[in-house]
Amino acid sequence: MLYAILIGALAGFLAGKLMKGGGFGFLMNMILGIVGGAVGGWLFGTLDVTIMEGIVGDLIEGVIGAVVILFVAGLFKK
After folding, report:
1. Which of 5, 38, 43, 66 suits a disulfide with 33, CB 3.0-4.6 Å?
2. Residue 53, exposed/middle/buried by CB under 10 A (0-12, 13-18, 19+)?
3. Predicted confidence (pLDDT) per residue in 33-76, tens digit
């Protein structure tokens, strides 16, 4: 559980850096990253796609999920 929160928070931070405009700020990006990590894990699990094994793979999945969540949240922000 703690592992998923830490990876999700790091993924949210990285996704905020990747998104134009920086997303929603440090704390909100981390929270959305935790949600995005869960979404990324579910999405890649559903599609039966494995990017990499271990921490790096989990982080990549989390960043992709967090970018998707930040993008969708950005649509509602405007």
Report:
1. 66
2. exposed
3. 888 888 888 888 898 888 788 888 888 888 888 888 888 887 88
Distance between the two ends of the chain, CA-based, in angstroms?
33
- The one-letter amino acid code at 35 reads V
C-alpha torsion 22→15→68→2, nearest 10: -130
Query: How is the chain split into domains, by residue range?
Result: 2-77
**41 CB-near residues (< 8 Å, 6+ apart):** 58, 61, 62, 65
The model's pTM: 0.81
Is the pLDDT at 78 greater than 80? The verdict is: no
